[in-house]
Write a structure and sequence with these properties.
3 strands; mainly alpha; Double Stranded RNA Binding Domain; 12 helices; Ribonuclease iii, N-terminal Endonuclease Domain, Chain A
Length: about 240
C-alpha cells in the first residue's frame, strides 16, 4: 500500500496514517495475516456510512428548501446507494489499494461493488476522525453535487421497485410480489436471482450480488415490459399477458 500515492490522489494528508491504512484493509486480509497490527475497515465503514448519510441529508436540506421530506428521502437514497458509492471508490482507484486476502482478490474482490462501497464509506469515516467533519464535507459534497443534477433530470431518484409498484397498481390494480428464485456460489461470493410477479405472472428477473440488487434489476426489466404492454394496449387484461 503506497500511502503517499493514495494521499496525492485524495489531496489529503493524514495526520494518523494508520487510519488511512485501516480504511483500506478488508477483513479477508486479517484472516491471512493474523499478526497485522490494525483492525479491518468494518468499524470505520459503520462510521463512514453514518457520516455520508448525515452530510448528504444536510446538503439536501439546506439547498432544496422547496422539496418535501418524502422526496428528499428519495434523493438521499439514490445518492448513497451501493452502486453510487462504489463508483466514487472506482474514481479514486480504491480497489487497487486495498489490503485484501489472496482468496478474495482472486475471486474479484477488488471489483465487487459491496467491497468498494464499504471502502469508500471507511475512507469517509477515516477522514472524519483525522480531519473533522468540515474536511469530510469538502471532500464528499463535490462528488455528489453533479450526481444530484443527474438524478433530478432523469428522475432516477425514484427507484425501479417503487416505480413498478406504482405502475402495476395503477394498471392491474395488483401489488407486485418479489420471490427468490435461486442462490448460488460460495458464501463470500453469492449470486442471487429474484423474480417479480403480478398475479403469478413473471414480469422480470434480476441477477445480482445481493437480493436487493437482484430485485432492483428485476423491477427494471418488469418496468420495460409493463411500459410496452401499456403502450400497445392501455386497457389490456392481465390474462392476455404471456411470460
Amino acid at each position: 500500500m503506497n500511502i503517499k500515492k493514495i494521499e496525492a490522489k485524495l489531496e489529503i494528508s493524514f495526520d494518523d496514517k494508520n487510519l488511512l491504512k485501516q480504511a483500506l484493509t478488508h477483513s479477508s486480509y486479517l484472516n491471512e495475516n493474523v499478526n497485522y497490527p490494525l483492525e479491518s475497515n468494518e468499524r470505520l465503514e459503520f462510521l463512514g456510512d453514518a457520516t455520508v448519510g448525515f452530510l448528504t441529508a444536510t446538503y439536501l436540506y439546506q439547498n432544496f428548501p422547496e422539496i418535501q421530506e418524502g422526496q428528499l428521502t428519495s434523493f438521499r437514497a439514490a445518492l448513497v446507494r451501493t452502486e453510487m458509492l462504489a463508483d466514487f471508490a472506482i474514481r479514486l482507484n480504491l480497489g487497487q489499494h486495498l489490503n485484501m486476502g489472496k482468496g478474495e482478490h482472486e475471486n474479484g474482490g477488488r471489483e465487487r461493488l459491496t467491497i468498494l462501497c464499504g471502502a469508500f464509506e471507511s475512507l469517509i469515516g477515516a477522514i472524519y476522525l483525522d480531519k473533522g467533519l468540515e474536511i469530510a464535507k469538502y471532500f464528499f459534497i463535490p462528488m455528489i453535487k453533479p450526481e444530484i443534477e443527474k438524478i433530478i433530470a432523469d428522475k432516477s431518484y425514484r427507484d425501479s421497485k417503487s416505480l413498478f409498484q406504482e405502475m402495476a397498481q395503477g394498471y392491474h390494480k395488483i401489488t407486485p410480489v418479489y420471490q427468490d428464485i435461486s442462490e448460488t456460489g460460495p458464501a463470500h461470493n453469492k449470486v442471487f436471482t429474484v423474480g417479480v410477479y403480478i398475479d403469478k405472472v413473471c414480469y422480470g428477473r434480476g441477477i445480482g450480488t445481493s437480493k436487493q440488487q437482484a430485485a432492483q434489476l428485476a423491477a427494471q426489466e418488469a418496468l420495460r415490459r409493463l411500459e410496452i404492454e401499456i403502450s400497445i394496449r392501455p386497457d389490456r387484461s392481465l390474462k392476455t399477458c404471456q411470460v
